[in-house]
User: Fold these one by one.
Assistant:
Number 1:
Amino acid sequence: MKLQLLLLSVNIINFCLAERQRFDHYKVYRVNPTNANQLAGLQYLDGNSKDALVLNNVHMGPTDFFVAPSYLNTFLNILKGLDLTPELIDNNAQTSLSLDIEPVADANRRSDDYLWSEYHELNDTHHWMQNLVAKYPGIVSMFVVGRSFEGRELLGLRINHINLRLGKQSIFLEAGMHAREWISPATATYFINELLTSKQPEIMSLARSYVWYILPHANPDGYVHTHKTNRMWRKTRSRLGNNCIGTDPNRNWDFHWREVGASSDPCSESYAGPRAFSEPEVEALAQYLRKLPEPMFMYLSLHSFSQLLLYPYGHTSQLPENHRNLRKVFNAAVRAIEKRYGTRYTGGNVYDAIYPAAGSSTDWVYGVLNVKYSYCYELRPSGYSFWTGFRLPASQIIPTGKETTDALVEMIKAAAQIEGYKIH
Ligand code: 0X9
Ligand code: ZN
């Protein structure tokens, strides 16, 4: 009996290990396209092979590729043909990423112990959210946006403190759209906790002055996949009958869909999907946002990384109509975020500040729902180090949470002042 149990657990362990995708001897190369021909060549490479994975988006400027050992020669030959000289950044991604060793909080712990010293699994966070509903009756409630491709619920918290003011507006914060950007949901839950327990009067008056909607995991299937199988997964997990899985949910929104900076190739990391709103997660969120009862004052989307604050548009370099106000609020946020630890943010309109990218949530909310303040944060760390960038040490969750809260407080105050919306 004991032996059987032992064999069973060995089998389970083997099964888990076999499931996890490894990147042994994968190399990371950086290339720097400077003309349209090179860009098109890299886009082709991105879309046509699962063995040369671009780590976010092919664009003019440093772009990093994860290359499988079996594909190395082909990859280098294609680059030669494009007159591009790659720089070897990492010789063995598996070891330098320490992809096997990722400390995650124990999901069986009591929810009272939910802390920001580690990253959490999806169910752990959902339990914690459920407990908050019980702990703050009449203030916190759960909302269900819909279901993911694999059938998981998209759960958010609505926080509405008692406040006698009439006509409260809402602020919606979406996180976890890209699966591997773990600091995004962690910052969202940190912020939920601040809205409920902060000793800072400024945070609490902000908490009371708006109806808050916070969705920590906009892409739950992808997030689970980064815990169980592939830490570097970005997209959704939809199977659409192609040879590749998933769509980039931040290219799937129905606003200038797939016009630029989005791929029509199912294997690309920035695949826009077969049509706008093809992803059940994205479609459900859009429907939910359309039906919110309160007018939306601000929309916030948390991503990582690069330390950027971005506003519309991604499909054109043309600035949006209220860009001066968007810039003022941007300045307030960037100033505030630097105060605590000296963390430096840059940014601006997506198209110029980062790269052309059509079909994102922030652009759709701005362009279709006419929400005048719609921003996307690319949280810590800074720079281009893609192989460590998505794996921000858990010891930085709290500092990131604190400085991002500082930024949110100041940006909302600045926007409220411009719009004559009283905070109290
Ligand atoms: O490419 C993206 O979707 C975002 N960068 S990431 O590294 N997190 O993948 C940038 C999107 C910026 N665009 C808008 N939010 N409009
Ligand atoms: Zn992202």
Number 2:
Amino acid sequence: MSWYTFVVQDGFGRNIDYLRVSVTDKCNLRCVYCMPPDGVKQVRHSDMLRFEEVLRVCSAAARLGVCGVKVTGGEPLVRRGLTGFIRALKQSACLKNVTLTTNGLLLSGFLDELLEAGIDAVNVSLDTLNKDVFRAITRSDGFEQVLYSIHAAQEASISLKINAVPMRGVNEADIVPLAELARQKNVHVRFIELMPLGLGARILPIPQAEVKAALTQAFGTLEKFEGRLGNGPASYYSAAGFAGKIGFISALSHSFCGSCNRLRLTGTGLLKTCLSSDIGVDLKAVIRSGGSDAAIDAAFRSAVMLKPAGHDFHTNQHVKKNMYSIGG
Ligand code: SAM
Ligand code: SF4
């Protein structure tokens, strides 16, 4: 196996070394900020990229210097053949770091296969430790199953992060208990500022400063952690007596666009340049018109050069976009 050392830069001098890949729009939960209660309009099977097509894109990304791929969705574990795809990402696409983000419902049943496939880390999304609040947020049962998966992943020594979205009037009371998980175990708990995208635009976020103040009051001073954990934009803090770190991903109050390192591939093959923008390159068209590997590389490079300087969440309306298609 060889990893590529070249790194592609965008028009603003940012190194692009990370790709988020959405493998399905489908999900077994209906989170209020992401999916409508009745689920989503079915995308025709033939309109979705097949795994071998996604693999060609990821191989192109690796050739151009991308070293990390996050597999996301919808809920990636509902797509059949996912663990085989992850194995192929590690083995044939030569990706150094392949990680998964999941709602955790099906995770415990896939842990052995994921480890065998070479998964490097898993993020589990969990916004509450209260069963009733979980049902209200996800419009589903399954709270115990998610907790069980988290426990099983810890037992299996998988590198684990928990992602929570604080929402005004919904889960304020969970901020401290969720952070508490990082005290007891070496798991990093990250608070993601709700972005005004799709259904998320109808719910009020809780800004990072407020979350941090609540945590400081509960746990004492949070010390900035200067090391790097993973591929993402989170800023991390240590608290006294904590085994894991507390992280913040705050696109609105603490924009990280200046150091953004990523592109996003949707399930239907659009290589998106920014979460808040529809500008991108249709890689499905390139692949299905018989495009060579060189053509895919060139299309990937052109998407990199289309990347905007920053998001426009403050100025534009994004209610028509869907996080379940983009993958977060
Ligand atoms: N189903 C998987 C999961 O929930 O982890 C993967 C897909 S989900 C779209 C990825 C992440 O996006 C989740 O952590 C979710 O909480 C987050 N998310 C969804 N909508 C969001 C929004 N409007 N603002 C911030 N984060 C959001
Ligand atoms: Fe499903 Fe994840 Fe969206 Fe929740 S956030 S509805 S788990 S895709």
